[in-house]
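Predict structure. Chain length: 347.
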Amino acid sequence: MSVRVGILGATGAVGQRFIQLLDDHPTFELAAVTASPSSAGLSYREAAKWRVDTPIPDDVAEMEVVATEPAAIADADVDLLFSSLPSSAAAEVEPPFLEAGYVVSSNSSNDRMAPDVPLTIPEINPDHLGLIDVQRDERGWDGALVKNPNCSTITMVPTLAALDEFGLETVHVSTLQAVSGAGYSGVTSMEILDNAIPHIGGEEEKMETESRKLLGSFDGAELSLHDADVAASCNRIPTLDGHLENVFAGLTDDPEPEDVRDAMRAFESADLPSSPDQLIKVFGPDEPDRPQPRLDRTYADGMGIVAGGVESTTNGIQYNCLAHNTIRGAAGASVLNGELLVEEGYV
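Prediction complete.
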């Protein structure tokens, strides 16, 4: 089965990751790329300042970039759209596509916490796609909007899902986030070199709220947030890619570190084209200095989660986790959601 797809905001950093991940995809065929009006009419090669570490696919390089509006892609016969727009732009641009009947798998942060919008990690909460039926009833859309979480949230939540069997009660997390998470021009070299920035605007709130929605339960009509108390401190450090996070999880039970490692290793992956065979790779006590961004961010081609440093504390378990923030944490997460939408018959 071939599904024709388009990318909204295809020339930016996350849009370029979409291009890379969709090249030779077994299901998706890229049929449309959109960008700002200043780029419309140019070839993709002319419009995009390419910064990904693999070449622009030849067929994409010569594609014409069109405006980000439904009329501009009407002739492309697109079944699914991936959105990599800034949230302020996405809030205005996505609804017309949804009203026009398009299904949108979006990386943008707007509407992630809306009660009728699925915020989905396929390995964690695929049943939350059922919110699409609620969404269509309430908003009158023929299309559907699905969101993936923030890049720092998606690094941590799979490990929390694995721990939930022990009675997850509290989560305290401190992040060490790569500069690519801010976009190519987001942090200047003079700000970040020989430095760490102990604040990332809005990031803490996203981790604290999105985690509870992802781990929540859906009864077919309404979604209830998980009752764990989540507190986050987010920090920018001078690594290029890969978010490393220090997590302290308070649990009802009192598992041994080896029980926690086993639960993470055994946590089931999804049966989707881009899913890693093993979702969470876990380092044992003989390698307490792992994971590290430079060494471990490309695990499972950047689509997996890596954990280590698991230790008992007086209130639960302490560990570290890591994921590639622009692959698993952004474009790759939207691609996985797109695969899930196809699998579940929404596309």
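Summary: The mean pLDDT is 96.
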